[in-house]
Amino acid sequence: MGDREQNLKDALELLRDAKIAIQKVSKIYETEPVGGVPQDDFLNIVVEVSTDLTAENLLKVIHSIEKGLHRKRLVHWGPRTIDLDILYFNDDHIQTGDLTVPHPEIPNRKFVLVPLLEVVEPNSQLHKDAQKMLDQTTDKMNVQVYKSGSE
Ligand SMILES: Nc1ncnc2c1ncn2[C@@H]1O[C@H](COP(=O)(O)OP(=O)(O)OP(=O)(O)O)[C@@H](O)[C@H]1O
Ligand SMILES: Nc1nc2c(c(=O)[nH]1)N=C(CO)CN2
Questions:
Q1: Where is each 7,8-dihydro-6-hydroxymethylpterin-pyrophosphokinase domain found (predicted)?
Q2: 11: which DSSP letter?
């Protein structure tokens, strides 16, 4: 919602403020909303970060950034100013009440897989896995690069 590109920039700045180092940032992709709730198109990016935080503490930082950007959880999968998800955390598999890593929706989300492929090492296992997931999606979603400042 709102100035979508600025919201992404603000989120990156707030991650940096929290001493989370941004290593790589994908291009911005614009996609139709998935999940059945009628709303404006989304802007999505994937970033690679490095941090000394545990995954649980990273999640806490993410929640405080979402709060700082006035994210309101009114409708599940509904409009939001910002949504930060942990897709992967090293090679860890985490399953707690608050956190599932790798994020279980990755294989279903072309708007994640396309920018993910951009930031992971070209010859890595993760790249191969992401490419395979993308090849297997039957999703016809058009994931197009967003032209900066075109709001
Ligand atoms: N890998 C993860 N990254 C971020 N949040 C997660 C993760 N796994 C579980 N969660 C939990 O999901 C809860 C709900 O997240 P949120 O409201 O952002 O869902 P959503 O954006 O509507 O859907 P989705 O998580 O599928 O994108 C968070 O409070 C968090 O505890
Ligand atoms: N295109 C698009 N659709 C969504 C997205 C998203 O990031 N992009 N996130 C959702 C819930 O997290 C629900 N639907």
A1: 76-87
A2: H
Q: Are 33 and 4 in contact (CB under 8 A)?
A: no
Beta carbon of 34 within 6 Å of any ligand 2 atom? yes
Q: Which two tokens stand for residue 149?
A: 């400042």
Q: Which of 7, 34, 40 to mutate to test the pocket of ligand 2 (most atoms within 8 A of CB)?
A: 34
DSSP states along 77-120: T---S--------TT--EE-SS-EES-TTGGG-HHHHHHHHHHS
For atom 6 of ligand 1, the residue with the nearest CA is 99
Q: What number does CATH give the domain 4-145? A: 3.30.70.560
Ligand showing the shortest atom-to-Cα distance for residue 98: 1
Q: Assess whether the C-beta atom of 29 lies below 6 angstroms from ligand 2.
A: no
| pTM of the predicted model as reported, rounded to 2 decimal places | 0.93
How much is the ipTM here?
Answer: 0.94
- Domains of the chain, by residue range, sit at 4-145
Q: Which residue has the tokens 């296992």?
A: 125
